[in-house]
Design goal:
13 helices, binds adenosine-5'-diphosphate, Heat Shock Protein 90, single chain, alpha+beta
Length: about 625
């Protein structure tokens, strides 16, 4: 039952714990998502800031670089050597002079190439006249820098060189003779080294044309990639201007996304960029360069920002989880403590209840004990009274026994005395003196006997004193025999007495010693009463310092189960009216008074044997009185 309740409580606790755990996980997830979004925003903003910085630097550098060359073609177009060849383009001397001039100027300016085209667009002189891929003889009328220069007085264009196959930025300026345009001077700037200066650790810089074609890129993989699909119109234009000559354009397949903060993200992870490194997510910072018709874009890798955001949000979630755990532990501890206190209080109440109950029980038991003690006292008092009554009765019985014995003992001699006296009177009347004398002598003997009985009575009449003295065992035995004799004879018992010669006196009271022997002999007489063989043996001998008086009989003996109780007062097997059960207990007390001992032993005649050991009076320095 209790175990069931405990299990239910445990289950409930577990489900509560799981509920809290689930809630905690949901809260953590929510917080994680929120923090991650915020951190991503912050770190992307940071990345955007960096990209803007990079963008500004790159834009300034690129613009500065191009501006350096922008004003040079109009200047070169006014030079005499150019005007000379413009006026007479077929004059080899002028052409040579112009070629050399252009080569020198190119070297000084650090441009890629400078060349002069006549009004038809045919190149007449060029700085690379002596190189294998010389522009001389090439017609570039199709290039906008030529047509724009003719039409508007200046032109610029970026393209992949059709002859050199190198990307360049072209500036064109007309060569005039008054209002007449004789031709165009073009200057090509190499843009390769511009790109090289842009390489950065976690960003790329690209330059795209209005159609979205990447013209310049710090990462070569992006070159000539299409950041958005090309329209057919755009395609036509490209073909007309031959801007990218034979270069193969490819669609990068950029996936563009705009964040809520307005950041433009490009995901190139699934793009066709040939460089693995380049395929990732970028944050864009762009600025238009209207003069060049370019858009310069810094592609800032979002990886570090996202990694930072993830780390930060993971840290926040961990910290929150830790705080949550600490709170959970504290709450659990408190709950456990509270439970413990409740349990302790319950245990205390239970204990107090048990103590009260126990105290109550003890009080009841105490009361019962008190009642029992009172009852016992009453019983004891009653018992003592009954014991006193019985002792009194025993005394009376002993008196009666003695009176009977006395009556018997005195009656016989008295009867004989009377007979002899009558005989003596009769004999005297007939004067038979001799016979009269004999009768008188017998009368005397009878009187002596009565006197002896009277002496015994006298002895009995003496109160047993507390003083011990040297008592003659033989005298005691004889006296006892006198008293117990009638009983022995009554049952037909044969008494044999065996006394060791020169037996020492014992330390005792004479009357009480007789009483001891009378009791033992009477019991022996009772024991043999119903036996076929009725023998009683009284033995007295000396054993070291003690005198042993042994009374044995041929009776039935004492059964072992009652042996331990026979010395108890009022223990008797003789039935109502026959035994008081006091004989042996009185005997025991008397022997104890004599500082001796009495014990039941196996009798040699088949019945019981009582062995009384008394101290020898000689050793005690007592004299017979
Ligand atoms: P009582 O003789 O009045 O019964 P006692 O104290 O003298 O009381 O004896 C107690 C009991 O001891 C007797 O009832 C008897 O059973 C037993 N007893 C005593 N002496 C003998 C004996 N010689 N033989 C057998 N039993 C004896």
């Amino acid at each position: 039952m209790v175990q069931g309740i405990t299990q239910v409580a445990q289950l409930r606790q577990r489900s509560v714990f799981l509920g809290w755990l689930g809630l905690g996980v949901i809260v953590l997830l929510g917080v994680g998502i929120f923090v991650h979004a915020q951190a991503t925003r912050v770190f992307l903003n940071e990345a955007a800031g960096r990209a803007e910085g990079t963008l500004q630097l790159a834009t300034t550098a690129l613009e500065g670089y191009l501006e350096r060359f922008e004003r040079l073609p109009p200047l070169i177009a006014t030079q005499q050597r150019i005007l000379d060849v413009a006026v007479a383009p077929d004059d080899p001397a002028r052409v040579d002079a112009a070629n050399l001039f252009l080569r020198d100027v190119t070297n000084v300016l650090g441009a890629s190439d400078i060349y002069f085209m006549d009004a038809t667009g045919l190149t007449r002189a060029a700085s690379n006249f002596d190189l294998p891929r010389s522009f001389v003889g090439g017609n570039f009328a199709f290039r906008p820098y030529f047509s724009d220069a003719v039409a508007f007085g200046s032109g610029s264009f970026y393209a992949l060189g059709t002859t050199s196959l190198k990307r360049g930025y072209y500036f064109g300026a007309p060569v005039r003779d008054g209002d007449r345009i004789l031709g165009v001077v073009a200057l090509k700037v190499d843009v390769d080294n511009v790109e090289a200066a842009w390489s950065g650790a976690d960003y790329h810089v690209i330059v795209t044309d209005p159609k979205g074609v990447v013209f310049l890129s710090s990462n070569p993989a992006w070159r000539f990639g299409l950041t958005r699909p090309l329209t057919s119109e755009g395609q036509d234009l490209l073909e007309t201007t031959r801007r990218y000559a034979e270069a193969l354009l490819f669609d990068i397949q950029v996936r563009e996304q705009i964040t809520p903060n307005g950041h433009v993200l490009w995901d190139t992870s699934l793009s066709r960029l040939p460089d693995d490194e380049a395929r990732r997510e970028y944050l864009l910072a762009s600025s238009a360069m209207p003069e060049a018709d370019w858009t310069l874009t810094v592609l800032q890798s979002t990886g570090p920002a996202r990694a930072q955001a993830l780390t930060f949000s993971a840290g926040a979630v961990l910290a929150l989880a830790l705080i949550g755990m600490v709170i959970a532990v504290v709450v659990q501890r408190r709950a456990r403590l509270r439970d413990l206190l409740v349990m302790q209080a319950a245990a205390q109440v239970q204990l107090e209840a048990r103590v009260a109950e126990r105290t109550h029980e003890l009080a009841d038991v105490n009361k019962a004990l008190g009642a029992e003690v009172a009852e016992r006292r009453l019983v004891e008092a009653n018992l003592r009274r009954a014991q006193d009554d019985l002792v009194q009765a025993a005394k009376l019985a002993a008196l009666g026994q003695m009176s009977a014995a006395l009556g018997h003992e005195v009656n016989q001699p008295l009867g004989a005395l009377r007979n002899y006296a009558e005989n003596a009177v009769a004999l005297l009347s007939i004067d038979r003196k001799a016979e009269t004398q004999t009768a008188l002598e017998r009368i005397l003997a009878m009187a002596d006997r009565i006197g002896a009985i009277a002496r015994r009575l006298h002895t009995f009449g003496r109160r047993p004193g507390q003083e011990l003295e040297a008592v003659d065992v033989i005298e005691a035995i004889e006296a006892a025999h006198e008293i117990a004799g009638p009983r022995l004879r009554q049952v037909g018992a044969e008494l044999s007495v065996d006394i060791m010669p020169d037996l020492s006196m014992v330390r005792a009271g004479p009357v009480r010693l007789q009483q001891v022997l009378v009791n033992l002999l009477t019991n022996a007489a009772d024991a043999v009463a119903d036996s076929a063989e009725r023998r009683v043996l009284l033995t007295a001998f000396e054993d070291a310092d003690t005198i042993v008086l042994l009374v044995e009989d041929s009776g039935t003996g004492v059964p072992p189960d009652i042996a331990p109780r026979i010395f108890d007062p009022f223990f008797s097997t003789k039935g109502v009216g026959n035994g008081l059960g006091l004989g042996l207990s009185i005997t025991y007390n008397i022997v104890k008074d004599f500082e001796g001992s009495i014990a039941l032993v196996a009798g040699r005649l088949g019945g019981a044997g009582f062995e009384v050991r008394l101290l020898s009076a000689n050793k005690q320095g007592l004299d017979a009185k």
